[in-house]
Sequence to fold (354 residues):
Amino acid sequence: MAAMQRITGVDVARGLAVLGMLTAHVGPGEPGDPLPWSLAQVVDGRSAALFVLLSGISVALISGGSAPVAGVRRVQARAKILVRAFLVLGIGVAVILLGTPIAVILPTYAVLFACATPLLGADPRRLLGGAVAVAALGPVLHVALQDVLGRLPGRGFTDLLVGDFYPAVVWFAYVLVGLAVGRMDLRDRRVRLRLLGAGAALAVVAHLASALLTRALAGDPALVALVTTEPHSSSGLEVVANTGVGLAVLALCLIVADAVPALVAPVAATGALALTAYTGQLVVIALLGESVVWQPQAGTWLAFLVVTVLACWTWRAALGRGPLERLLHGLAARAADVSPDVLPPRDAVPAARD
Fold:
């Protein structure tokens, strides 16, 4: 089976998502910092949403991109996706055991990744329709199920489904959008411009609608929670706004990556090694202690950024795939190493005896 298509602009967007999540974790946020106090809040939530949206695009690229595979090749694609999801889930659980004060996205990412496998043959319009339905109904289910599921044993499953940060019942919308976008020809200039325009429009409309509704419903906190675009609020309007930002960022990355590939090469390398970069920063946070999260400093944040980008860029140039990416690729390729049985001619099959 052919390897997943690589599009440099998608890697650049994924690199920005990883660096954005890093900024949300250790970025400056205290008064007196030389950088704007709101920097971490700007990327908080949006970067993770972009990361998950890009997972949908990855699913699409693994399964043929704008020309979806069928038959045995689709079975192979499903096998590869499921193995990757299983391994990412294991890595996510291991990272959680480090005990960092970070809401680790990998388990939810893995579950959402796997949930996309039955949809490899779905039409993009149906995928977008599904995303709209999830964005509309998911936040209501999130609120309704939190109290019910919170009483059940198995907190890990509850957090995956309706947790405070990455509830699958809401965040699956990003995967559906990504899968639909991945079925488009992302190398087509017209597609990129449409994504840019649609993304900008969605982001502006959602934020304006949220501002107006939040003011109108100020006396009812429960209703405000359903219309806010605050990070990790998991409201429908936050999903729309984050989707718009994600599509606009993706379009810009695709355009810039083609125009000045050398300029964005370090960030593209970070995106190509996204799993290693994300996991590595959590390991470093565990080694340095919780103070790097609770007492963020601009110098520490800049050191994280520079070391992450340089390490990924150097590794990518010298060794290709990152260590965790190599593990996922190798095991997924083995799982997908299947071919249909060669059946004997029907005339050669002995007739069954009564």
Q: What stands out?
A: The chain has one domain: 8-335.
